[in-house]
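Z., the sequence and structure:
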Amino acid sequence: MMNTQIKKIALLIASSMLSVGLAGCGSDGDNGSTGKPGGPAANTVAQLKLDVTDVNHQGSESQVTVFATNEQDLPVVGLKDLEIKKLSQLIPHGATGAGNSAAWQTLGATKVFIDNKDGSYSFKVDVKNFDPALTQRFNIIAAASTLQDGTTSVPRTEYTEDLASDGSAPRYTKNVVATETCNTCHAEGVKIYHGYTSLESCTTCHNDDMAKDKNKVQVGFNHLIHNVHNSNKMYGKNLDKSAETAHNLIQDNCQACHIPPQADDNGLTEWNNWSRVPTMETCTSCHTTIDFKAGKGHSQQVDNSNCVACHNSQWTTEIHTGKVNTKKELINSYGLSSELVANSNNTATLTVTITDKAGTAVDAASLLPKIKQLETITNVGTQYAIMGYNPAPETGFKKVAQDLVKNGALVAPVALVNGKLVFTTPVLPFNQGAADTNTAFSFIGLGMCNDGTAFVNCADGVDFTGMKADLAFAAQGGKVTTRHIDSVAIDTCINCHGDSFDIHKGYHAGFVLSEQLGREIDGKLMTGIDGCVSCHTPHGTYGSGANKGALELKLHKTHSAFYGLIGGNCSQCHNDFNLDAFKAKGALATDGGVYTTPITATCGSCHIIGSEYFDAHTQAQLEGFGAVINGDFTAATQAAQSETCLFCHKPTVANHGHVEM
């Protein structure tokens, strides 16, 4: 018989405090009969914290005590939807066969418990194959529900704890990737799949036993997690789901998820397991043309015993990270230094200098054959651009898009002067609107041909990589006006897209947003996405609003489609809202040729008017608050500063639904 008990200080302190209220007193002060639980029990539960405080293994039964507290560390009494989803143990690497990775084995589960009325909850779990020498895992889930009173809400909570069978810290575990890493893309607390939110819940359930029982290698976590992040094959119950979006984000970058821990972080002792323990089950999730048992695409093998003989950890790491690391090296090889000058005839002259990694100017002529595209997009009006993708209604002007180099050749009328590329725009609509229309800006993108390891001359079939983009400003009278960049800094984009993501590569050269675009804001260097407005104008892009192409709308429209990633959590992208920016905005194109006042248009790009996400106000009410919705440009422009939304709505990044009446 194995009999193990552990106690934790949290249970002792909190339950002893609560027990003061468990001994009732009579009205005369003498000891009376036992009354209802009292003391400092939680009466609200904004955050539910769980802890395994007592474990007792006896034969084929495990007795487990879970202690619950709220955000104030007060005991939570009266939970009703609480379960041990999985009680598992970790089978060591190689124990089930040479070369096999360590795997979680399910021992049991239960939804039956006793509420001890002091914040603790007792479970009895029937277990099979319990081994006291192995690490035990307790995966505990409280559903979004209420307490027994039926009114006090309880948030969904997933908690996982690994312990040695004697209750001490586990001597080994298998935490390869941290949930915090997942949360750089997947919003914290928002369901990823099946309603679950933590990586530990996923790995514990999707174990090798499940894969064997279902005879589906694709449901085992080692296979599944790679399958849903690359689009080499379909996934899902019916194999009808595509991971194209995830693949476009990850771009086969293993280091997006497999991140070495910080020097002082001992939480991911197995972080390099992915390269140290190669298996057929894992590899076939990405390398879909291989059939190991048939000897197709790889030498024949029926198990994992010989994998590491060829695929040692160092070589596996180099093979899987080399492409991404080389791309970063290529991107960092060259930069741009651009200057825009406003001329007296209302044209502007753009001079682009290519620099090496040290910032030293390079003769562009020497690189021409290797340049796939060096493009420029020029517009006027940094806060509210007045040149459309198509001719704008207020000026009749459209953006000036000019390739300086295309497919290794200079494009007329561009000149090469002293190793620099020089282009003079047509006449621009300087000073034909608000104060910021004194400023023109040019967004510059560079794409260079390479073979994956070095730059090469461009030719059919040769790939290219987007390089660091640049941005230049010029004023026609007065000081240069720049667009606010404190709402979305590139850091938040990098969290999900990575630091070598070349945006719009294909039709465009591919823009890598880096420190090269940085400006100092309040003493801090910040890189924004303001250059994108040169194309994503208030008038939309090629559809003149039909595809909500204005930057303020396009970003919301694109990212709200992936609610499972963003989860309605504005801080996934926003570091601020800068509501004052609306004071400089005009009408935004919200459909083909029709316009909406800026606040309503921006909010409506996520909260579609008339949908379940925008049921607080009808269109008529919004119009009563000063909005023009899908009207003509003139009417929406005249009403742009008449919206009264912000009289009551005071949205913040943390609470974008905040209202002050």
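Residues 628 and 635 are 7 Å apart (CA to CA). Residues 327-537 form one domain.

Let me know what you think.
H.
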